[in-house]
Amino acid sequence: MEASAALDRLRDISSQVRSAVIFERGGKVIGSTLTDDEQSERVAREAEALLGEAEQHRNEAGGSGEFAQLEVALLGGSVFVVRDGERLIAATTPAEPTVGLVFYDLKSCLRELAAPAAPKKRAPAKRKSASRTKKSDAKS
């Protein structure tokens, strides 16, 4: 599935997601609901930095490993970051979202993007009409 199709589907199923940016590690934007490319790239860089800072603080406290998901709740809304392998998605929501549902929708979006595209259906083959026997072949 293409990123634009995955984001369209996300917006169809999640009324809580205001905006979303899909990107790879390093900040390369794959798709975005934002119309400004620079803003999409900035969101990707900041989301990855936010995830990195959270992991660093956790590691300093004795934890280990990478975060799979992160929510930052602000007074005006929330920022979500979800990772699936090398791909990430950052999204914003209004205040007090249904956190579990938003995480589920974002993970589903990334999984749909990773799924191989369904093969295009081919039109059914036209049947050839039965050939008529030539006069020279017919012996009476």
Can you describe this structure?
The protein is of the alpha+beta class. It is 36% helix and 23% strand. A 5-stranded antiparallel β-sheet has the order 2-1-5-4-3, sandwiched between helices. A hairpin with a 2-residue loop joins β3 and β4. α1 (3-13) packs antiparallel against α3 (99-114). It is globular, with a radius of gyration of 25 Å.
Any key phrases for this structure?
single chain, 140 residues, alpha+beta, 5-stranded antiparallel beta sheet, 3 helices, 5 strands, globular
Largest sheet: 5 strands, antiparallel
**Side-by-side strand order of the widest sheet:** 2-1-5-4-3
Principal-axis shape equals: globular
Query: What is the SS-derived class?
Result: alpha+beta
Number of helices: 3
Overall pLDDT, averaged?
86
Any low-confidence stretches, pLDDT <50, length ≥5? none
Using only C-alpha atoms, the radius of gyration works out to 25 Å
The helix content is: 25-40%
Strand content of the residues, in percent? 15-25%
What is the number of beta strands?
Answer: 5
Through-space gap between termini: 62 Å
Helix-strand sequence: HEEHEEEH
In brief, what are we looking at here?
The protein has 140 residues and is of the alpha+beta class.
